[in-house]
């Protein structure tokens, strides 16, 4: 979406407050908030706010707080870091007439929360009283007082990695009303070292308080756990005939659970990343009719669906340079540093996010379904930046999962040097003079296209490698 206000590139030592409709359609990115007596960031009475790549550390209150004195709608907290909070890492409150519908918390690292525990009730890594939330692909480390993730209404908790919680890894307590879906799904999470402070399971459906309005349906499936108790469901749920299913959950050793985390995340804090295979020197064949210091090379990216996750392999000169795993999230450009390729997305000329799902890469615009988010549709484009120095890349082949018409435009120094309209599952763009950027759009395709990989041929001299 096109934001009407952008807050970026700041270092703050006081609470950042977004209060009132004048802050609707705001993007907060690349902001550091530290050493605050109080909350790090507070939102109230706002809609369509995205918090991206924000660092919050050493705050006496809550890292990010959605106030229970004013509703919000469609707030996204993505790719951010919260470390060292006196109270909760993220808190969304609910009261009569106040809710925070559509809250998305995706791809964040939240550590060392609840440091002032014991002062007033339990304090959690993520504490959500609001409804219809999505908590996905976050890393939570050392929730010192309460649960790593504590939810009180309907929503989805998926693909999170939890290492260290005083109470439960994930807990549901029905002291706030259910939302419109009336469903809670807890799936594909990994939990290690939970229940330090007492008899709690890795995942707990806690007792139903009197007069509560619990969700109608609860699904707990395909989670990887390491505690003795695993999934604990209070007897109240059967007594009140709440449809509760627990399937596909497995219990492994803590060492195995951490190995799974490392494999998926390429090393969260406190863990050693898996070994990366890199060539000592790029393979550099002789190139006729060029100066001795000019060589040729090749980088590649491939995506494949592995269960509900996507495996990403990066190669340099046909040698594996890096692997990673992702689940229904975007691939951050920083993750492709091993092959020095940056991939970004636009819609109607404004910045958008990259979406990945089941081995497909696309553009994730606001409001899209998971399937749409892994396609390029309509006015969406995917942008490949191949080098910091122009004039190096001479040929790119892009693999597409779906057949359709695609438009490829190459750029050098910000100037378009050629456009091709192509069709098929493998499309290419070439220019002997070299280009530094390629833009891929869906053209006239009504069904959309998805990227599953690419290979770029490039030239470099001894003073520069792409």
Automatic annotation (TrEMBL):
Lineage: superkingdom: Bacteria
Domain named Right handed beta helix: residues: 25-109
Residues passing through the membrane, by range: none
Keyword annotations from UniProtKB, A to Z: Lyase
A GO term, aspect molecular function: lyase activity
Disordered: region residues: 261-303
Stored Pfam families: Beta_helix
Gene3D superfamilies: Single-stranded right-handed beta-helix, Pectin lyase-like
SMART domains in alphabetical order: PbH1 (SM00710)
Coiled coil: none
Protein name: Parallel beta helix pectate lyase-like protein
């Amino acid at each position: 979406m096109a934001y009407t206000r952008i807050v970026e590139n700041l270092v703050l030592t006081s609470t950042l407050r977004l209060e009132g409709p004048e802050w609707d359609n705001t993007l907060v990115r690349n902001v550091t908030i530290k050493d605050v007596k109080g909350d790090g960031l507070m939102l109230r009475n706002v809609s369509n706010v995205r918090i991206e790549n924000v660092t919050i550390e050493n705050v006496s209150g809550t890292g990010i707080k959605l106030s229970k004195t004013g509703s919000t709608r469609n707030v996204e907290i993505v790719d951010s870091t919260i470390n060292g909070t006196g109270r909760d890492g993220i808190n969304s409150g609910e009261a009569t007439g106040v809710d925070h519908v559509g809250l998305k918390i995706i791809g964040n690292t939240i550590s060392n929360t609840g440091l002032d525990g014991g002062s007033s009730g339990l304090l959690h890594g993520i504490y959500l009283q609001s409804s219809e939330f999505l908590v996905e692909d976050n890393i939570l480390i050392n929730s010192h007082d309460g649960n790593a993730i504590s939810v009180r209404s309907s929503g989805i908790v998926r693909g999170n990695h939890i290492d260290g919680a005083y109470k439960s890894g994930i807990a549901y307590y029905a002291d706030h009303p259910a939302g419109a879906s009336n469903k809670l799904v807890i799936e594909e999470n990994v939990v290690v070292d939970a229940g330090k402070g007492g008899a709690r399971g890795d995942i707990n459906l806690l007792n139903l308080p009197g007069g509560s309005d619990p969700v109608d349906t609860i699904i707990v499936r395909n989670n990887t756990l390491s505690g003795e108790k695993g999934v604990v469901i209070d007897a109240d749920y059967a007594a009140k005939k709440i449809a509760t299913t627990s399937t596909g959950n497995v219990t492994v050793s803590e060492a195995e659970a951490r190995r799974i985390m490392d494999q998926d995340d390429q090393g969260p804090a406190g863990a050693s990343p898996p070994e990366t295979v890199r060539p000592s020197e790029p393979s550099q064949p002789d190139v006729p009719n060029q100066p001795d210091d000019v060589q040729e090379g090749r980088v590649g990216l491939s995506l494949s669906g592995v269960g509900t996750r996507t495996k990403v392999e990066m190669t340099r000169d046909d040698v594996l340079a890096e692997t990673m795993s992702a689940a229904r999230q975007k691939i951050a450009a920083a993750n492709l540093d091993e092959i020095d390729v940056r991939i970004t997305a636009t819609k109607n000329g404004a910045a958008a996010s990259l979406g990945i799902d089941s081995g497909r890469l696309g553009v994730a615009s606001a409001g899209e379904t998971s399937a749409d988010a892994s396609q390029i549709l309509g006015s969406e484009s995917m942008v490949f930046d191949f080098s910091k120095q122009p004039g190096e890349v001479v040929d790119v082949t892009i693999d597409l999962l779906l057949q359709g018409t695609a438009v490829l435009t190459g750029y050098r120094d910000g100037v378009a040097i050629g456009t091709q309209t192509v069709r098929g599952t493998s499309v290419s763009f070439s220019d002997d003079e070299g280009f530094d950027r390629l833009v891929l759009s869906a053209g006239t395709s009504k069904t959309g296209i998805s990227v599953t990989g690419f290979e770029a041929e490039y030239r470099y001299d001894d003073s520069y490698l792409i």
